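Think of the structure tokens as a kind of shorthand, similar to the way a musician reads notation: each symbol stands for something richer, in this case the local conformation of the backbone. In the example below we present two proteins back to back. Begin with the first one, reading the sequence and then the tokens, and try to describe in your own words what changes along the chain.
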Amino acid sequence: MNIKSVAFVNELEFLTHDTLLLTLSSQLIDFEPGQYMILNIPGDYESREYSIYNRPGKSQLQFLIKIVADGGLTPKLKNLKKGDPIEMEGPFGFFTLPKKYNPIQDFMFISTGTGISPIHSILKSYPLINHKIIHGVRSTNEKYHFQDYNQNHYQSCISRNASNDFQGRVTNYLKTLTPEKSTFYYLSGNSAMINDVSDFLLSHDIPMNQINTEIYF
């Protein structure tokens, strides 16, 4: 059930100079991993949708937020203090696992930047599902909490600085693979990546109903 509520800032942790992990103390929210909430500062007309970063069952919610210098809300969020109130509405969204799925079903999660957020929630909740993660970032410091994932199933793609990771974009890495028609694909991140990867998967005859998307603006 979607509800409106008030939460309070518990912690602000900067993972990079422009990426914030916002932790809010709240009443227990019944959400499905992969869903999002709408946040706004009381008295301010700006509101934004943010995927929930943590798993359900906790009296707190976490959000991985990219600070946009000329954005309407994020410059204000980064200046919040512990105890400040935040208005929330939700949960919303369908970027979630099927209600019923075969335990041997394969999932591939493909994301860019903070688009890893709903995937983090899903895999903290269901760590034993058969999966692979492909995470596209600009530099290694944007591999947010990559140690939380099974490293045998995690692949980062670095587009700018040199590292031991795959050098290039997510779409470059995908061209080294042959998509499996039985796999369910979850795409989360910027619209350019989602469009390119969707086209790539469809060109390999992946059924549309096996591609779930969540666009980050």
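Once you have a description of the first chain, move to the second and do the same.
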Amino acid sequence: MRPGSEAGAPVSEPDLRGVADARDPAGDGGPAVTVTLGDLEVALLGLLSVRPMTGYDIGLHFDRALAPWWDTPRTQIYPKLRDLAGRGLVRESYVVQRSKPNKRVYSLTESGHAALRRWLALPIERSRTRQHMMMHMFLGNLVDAGELQERLRSYRQELMGEARRWRGIRERFTRSLSGPYRQAVYFELLALEYLIEATEFEASWIDRVVPLADDATGVGQEHTDRLLDMMREALR
């Protein structure tokens, strides 16, 4: 059984598309181990690099700061934290509270910092997410033009709803620029700004291409040049 896992509890294998593979000490002065970081592990170490957190805090910050653009199985947060602790990348400590239940706080070890920095030294990998909207567009000839347009408009509404939600998160984050973690918040805001602009660009792209679906009906060789000119004009 893998370190930190429980009998009967499924533990998914990490996505190792961008691994940081190195020989690091396990914790403080422990034996050398091979460090590989999957997507969820990068996220957890990244959050703990800001400050020590409880598992509840990690889940809260994950949903607020990372979930929109770093899609990983959050149901595995606690098993993965135990796994990282067993590998010497995370340290667990208990805080005794009088009026509240005791809590377990997680923080990075020196090895955890080193593994995260080594992952950051890797070349930036292009996202391999599946674009369902693009697949609907690619197969647009198989459905009625009006049906495709309606689905695109519905998708656009979802995009704009997400953009509004992220702008609200940006506003809350901005208030923390004067707090003790302002440097981390500054870069979190830069990442969030990219997400907002990318979402709004996708919505504006839909606005430009939806009218073109009507012109696809009965397209033949004689219409090719005209259609291409219309597309260039719409996407300019």
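Compare your description with these statements about the second chain. The chain has eight helices and five strands.
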